[in-house]
């Protein structure tokens, strides 16, 4: 199965559907065997885009499974993120090198600043340092996560370049239209975390109606809604059936397509349900 992809600034192709791995194989987990089986199943299905972060505490687990999977590194698209505690000068390189070692690779396809932490005001210098690591070949593309339009505008104004990707909370009931518009203007690819909103949007009338009309699960409708707008998605699941359902939507010949009217109706749910933290104030994930 061929999956849709998007070209990043480096020219690399990023699969538009990846596997979110928050808590999957995390240190101290009592479900490591099940988590390993889930990741192995995802790879067997064809998942090649794997998203993690230092703050997820699962990079060693992922590195071990990926290294033993038989999948060639060149086929994989690996993303990790700079921990909030490592924005300061002198911290970021050690953090990046630890991620590379844990993931058993000598480069990352995409490395992101996990949160802007505007009160700390270090994201500009951190971005400049990551751009240097990109120039050294340790990173293929530099991205950001949870950056809102003002953060992006300042970053571009001060550094002279836009990030390759902005990973933001994006689902029918909270899809950050101002930030998405800013990304479009700046040429930044948008990637959705929590694209399934933990099922919160599945019962909404326009989602349920589209699912019924196309004879598909609500989860596929929500993913198709994002993908048809050019937004990449990283849903998380450890269920083999759900993994397969999610992956099918990203086929270059998708099983169904939403109409413009269906997309507009689903988009009208905006503003009802923010799951994550406010990027203007959040300062957690320090360890």
Architecture overview:
- InterPro entries: AKR, Aldo/ket_reductase_CS, NAD(P)_OxRdtase_dom_sf, NADP_OxRdtase_dom.
- Substrate binds at residue 114.
- It holds the Pfam family Aldo_ket_red.
- This is Putative oxidoreductase.
- Keywords: NADP, Oxidoreductase.
- This protein is α/β, with parallel strands linked by helices.
- It has a single domain (5-198, 231-237), classed as TIM Barrel (Alpha-Beta Barrel), CATH 3.20.20.100.
- 37% of the residues lie in helices and 15% in strands.
- The protein is built from ten helices and ten strands.
- The protein has helices at 32-45, 59-67, 92-103, 123-135, 149-159, 177-186, 205-214, 218-227, 240-249, 260-267; strands at 5-7, 13-15, 19-20, 49-51, 77-82, 108-113, 139-145, 165-169, 189-193, 232-233.
- The protein has an eight-stranded parallel β-sheet with strand order 3-4-5-6-7-8-9-10. Strands 1-2 form a two-stranded antiparallel sheet.
- A hairpin with a 5-residue loop joins strand 1 and strand 2 (13-15).
- The chain is globular, with a radius of gyration of 18 Å.
Give the helices and strands, then pairings.
Blueprint: E1 5-7, E2 13-15, E3 19-20, H1 32-45, E4 49-51, H2 59-67, E5 77-82, H3 92-103, E6 108-113, H4 123-135, E7 139-145, H5 149-159, E8 165-169, H6 177-186, E9 189-193, H7 205-214, H8 218-227, E10 232-233, H9 240-249, H10 260-267
Parallel strand pairs: 3-4, 4-5, 5-6, 6-7, 7-8, 8-9, 9-10
Antiparallel strand pairs: 1-2
């Amino acid at each position: 199965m061929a999956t849709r992809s998007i070209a990043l600034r480096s020219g690399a192709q990023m699969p538009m559907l990846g596997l979110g791995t928050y808590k999957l194989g995390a240190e101290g987990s009592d479900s490591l065997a099940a988590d390993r089986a889930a990741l192995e199943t995802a790879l067997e299905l064809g998942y090649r885009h794997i998203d993690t972060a230092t703050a997820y505490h699962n990079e060693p687990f992922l590195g071990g499974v990926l290294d033993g999977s038989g999948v060639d590194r060149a086929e994989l698209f690996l993303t990790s993120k700079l921990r909030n505690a490592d924005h300061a000068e002198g911290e970021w390189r050690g953090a990046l090198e630890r991620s590379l070692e844990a993931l058993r690779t000598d480069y990352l396809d995409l490395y992101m600043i996990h949160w802007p932490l505007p009160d700390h005001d270090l994201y500009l210098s951190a971005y400049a340092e990551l751009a240097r690591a990109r120039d050294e070949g340790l990173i293929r593309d530099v991205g950001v996560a949870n950056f809102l339009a003002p953060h992006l505008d300042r970053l571009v104004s001060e550094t002279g370049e836009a990030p390759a990707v902005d990973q933001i909370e994006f689902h029918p009931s909270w899809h950050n239209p101002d930030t998405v518009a800013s990304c479009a203007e700046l040429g930044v690819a948008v990637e959705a975390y929590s694209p399934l909103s933990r099922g919160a949007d599945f019962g909404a009338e326009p989602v349920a109606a589209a699912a019924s009309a196309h004879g598909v699960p609500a989860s596929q409708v929500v993913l198709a809604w994002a993908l048809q707008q050019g937004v990449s998605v990283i849903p998380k699941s450890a269920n083999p059936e759900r993994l397969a359902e999610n992956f099918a939507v990203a086929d270059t010949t998708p099983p169904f397509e939403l109409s413009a009217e269906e997309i507009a109706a689903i988009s009208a749910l905006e503003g009802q349900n923010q799951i994550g933290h406010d990027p203007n104030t959040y300062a957690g994930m320090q360890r």
